[in-house]
Amino acid sequence: MSDQLLANRPYDQLVRELLSSDGLWTDNPATNFVSVTVQPDNQNQPDPVRLAGRVTRAFLGIRLDCAQCHNHPFADWKQTDFQSLSAFFGQTHVGFTGIYDGPGEYVAEEHKSKQTRVVAPAVPFAKDLVPATGSRREQLSAWVTNPKNPFFARSAANRVWALVVGRPLVEPVDNLEVESHGQPHLQVLADDFVAHEFDVRRLIRVIACCQVFRLESAGGPENNEVADKTWSVFPLTRLRPEQVVGGVIQAASVTTIDQESHILFRLVRFGEQNDFVKRYGDSGEDEFDSRGGTIPQRLLMMNGKVVNERMKADITNASARISWMAPDDARAIEAAYLTVLTRRPSAEEADYFVRSLGEPGADRPHKVEDLCWALINSTEFSWNH
């Protein structure tokens, strides 16, 4: 996925490949979108229900899966709409050659009566956009990514805005049916996205050029809620799990760790990052939730292996190198702040920590280690502002 985005492959092509690819994930990684739903209790076959829900939420920004067991309570979606969409995956199987389309039909079970019936594939709206040829998944992917589909471009623009700015224009990010003051602005971005053939790189540049992206997060003391809703300040948002661990690993190094770094450094970072995200918790559907982190997340930051290993006064870590190389305590504190928070300490902060490091018998390496640990565990470190 990252390679495709780096090559700036048009977003509609990328989505069509995710939905309609065949084969093994080792040869065609795009098939993971389908194979990830394979479960033992489903005879080791892809789950049409889960796939239909993933498609509508991820690529259309609508909660059609809320009509899985009954008609949607707040939207026009009916249970038959969701069942008909699931039927596009009724002929999708997994075997020795990986994902493939073969014979079969989608059989739906009525929630109350438990009676079953064969359901034919159909889309819930814009039926004229479904091509007459191709496999069922190819037909579905063409319908989803059609420039005239009223939800596809808007859903992509809303998610990219959320990733860049920290909060979607229309909330929740997977519920574009709701009335929102952000809808007109989202439509402008969506129209530009379609006009430039789903160029993700351009979409990111357009968002980054908006005034909202260049604003500070500090608003008026009594109007913060209003300021957030009107986008008159930059939204204060939590960092994603991979951003948190990426910040921890980078803060432990006095040099930049990027794609130009030695392969060994990148491999170590990859392993640490995966382990941390697994324990920290992938935010999933709550990735743009404005609430604070969980207690297990805070405990992992305070006591977790990655943080403790990266912050300790070891010769390979920034805290030790700063304490040894800084000419005085004030410069050591300044370097620690720059390394962890990318800013210099305020006068009050500098005075406090200079006194701490200057106490009789103070061990500078361990004092700087404690300082770096405290900065890593500050609210400022784990929030985007």
Distance between the termini: 28 Å
Widest sheet: strand ordering:
1-2
What does the radius of gyration come to? 25 Å
- Fraction in helix: 40-55%
Q: How many domains would you count in the coordinates?
A: 3
- Overall number of strands: 6
Helix vs. strand class: mainly alpha
**How confident overall, as mean pLDDT?**
86
Q: Looking at the structure, what is the overall shape?
A: elongated
| Main beta-sheet strand count, sense and barrel state | 2 strands, antiparallel
Please tell me about this protein's structure:
This protein has 385 residues and is mainly α. It has three domains: 143 residues, no CATH class; 79 residues, no CATH class; 147 residues, no CATH class. 48% of the residues lie in helices and 5% in strands. It is built from 19 helices and six strands. A two-stranded antiparallel ribbon has the order 1-2. A hairpin with a 2-residue loop joins strand 1 and strand 2. The chain starts with a helix and ends with a strand.
